[in-house]
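In these records, each integer encodes one residue's backbone shape. Here is one protein:

___
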Amino acid sequence: MNTPQTLNDLYFDAVERFSSKRAALRYKADGIWHDITHQELARRVKHAALGLFQLGIQPGDKVAILSNNRPEWALADFASLTARCPDVPIYSTLPAGQVAYILRNSGAVAVFVSDREQYEKIAEARNDAPALRHVIVFDEVEGIEGPGVLTLARLIQQGAAAESKYPTYAEDARSVKPDDLATLIYTSGTTGDPKGVMLSHGNFASNVVAALKVISIGPDDSALSVLPLCHSFERMAGHYTLFHAGATISYAESIDAVAANMGEVHPTVMLAVPRLYEKIYGRVLENALAGGGAKRKIFFWAKRNAEAWADLELAGKPIPAWLGLKKKIGDRLVFSKLQARTGGRIRFFVSGGAPLAPEIAKFFYAAGLKILEGYGLTETSPLISINPPEKPKMGSVGPPVPGVEVRIAEDGEILARGPNIMQGYYNKPEATAEAIDAEGWFHTGDIGELDADGYIRITDRKKDIIVTAGGKNIAPQPIENLVKMNSFVENAVMIGDRRKFPSMLIVPNVAAVTKWASERNLPTDDYGSLLEHPDVVAKIEREIMLNLRDLASYETPKKFALLKDDFTIEGGELTPTLKVKRRIVEKNYAERIEQLYEDA
């Protein structure tokens, strides 16, 4: 097999290599999982690409995709790429105003949309996107019509009818060069307007090849696609890498359906952000604590022994026979149930997008569910490093993948260089020059270190570091991760920049708080009032401080504000990949924050 130099090489090679009897993609409709083979996908991709030509779209024109994860997303992506049109993925959770900004800024001439909800955003945004001429709707939705509007089925039909006009479609598609633009991915914009990251065919293809040198994936693997395909992590790893390796990709129905879908699909590989693993861990703890005394004792006995086993295993030390026996008993009594809930076939999870708490990584490892934590940014296509399956290190994001160089700047910032580094920010030469220096090093904005084995450890985002009024530097993410380990906490954001001391906004776990309050005969009919009850406030603060007992005094939050509602994408406090937008949170809760410091 030749090493693919472009995404089109990767796509056509996979279609040629894999049997028509195997599923490339799977989706659930009417309660049944349906398969799409590589050959069936290729037929529809070709006709969709030719349909774009029939609309008058030319190679080099930009085509946007506004949709949740589904087979048509992959079809639209490959159709655009093989038509030699860079595509512009847009998160389906974005409001119409932000959609309009991306369409206008990118100059997209066409957009694929999934359904009526997304179409209505486009209808609202069209006047602000003068280049947009065509809207292609995946679903057959009654009443959607207008100039330049057609269904995906109609586009494919038009392309199929014109097939004889384009005899060199595949050769032309393969003529793209590694340096040709493949996509414009707009960063989620934790500060300011999003920037269009220009990623080439070679950026992505090199990253796919590098990833598969570290992690073995093949035609026997099955994956559940959960993260938005707009996100560079899912796009590279959960879309291109899996497709190139011949794995079957099943699309989760929704975030809420992930647990059920895992039981149906039985994935061997799964990619997610730390929030998903935190939720699974929190649910496991909650169930253990809710059980009777015997069940609770068995769980914590199994957890304690399994983590002791994991410490020795990860350090490469011999496992005493007595500990091995206890581990087997714990697996049978406790962890086999957790493994079954993930589908029973997981070889490994991959975590990216934000730091994963080492304690959670170790718990999953001890439970027989290995999480390989990786690291990267949209601007690096995205993979910079990942933990190798045979030698993971908890608390690290692994060594750089083959072909990628990493060094630590004098101020602790992580710098990366290699074939995966973006071409730049679209129409923003100053921002590009600020991000990539004259020697080709990309400045990640993350603070970290390299250990003796070349593994990267990240301490925090450079811009998130809290500097107290006393001049103490505090990295908030590790502290927030410690707090979120507690079953009484759903979310946490640390504040305190230029303040006398750090404080924390806490979103309590509704179920855990309500259950605890009920057992003590406290009124639970009004949750907002319950969070103001002195006993509840004291309980949550005690729980938090248990998790923070090993912190230095200056790092320890001195005050807490309990928030009734969790942060949301719709409220602007979370990015589409569930990262907290600190500045927005601080703005939205400015009054509560000021109350914490009134008497300081």
Observations:
- The CA atoms of residues 105 and 523 lie 52 Å apart.
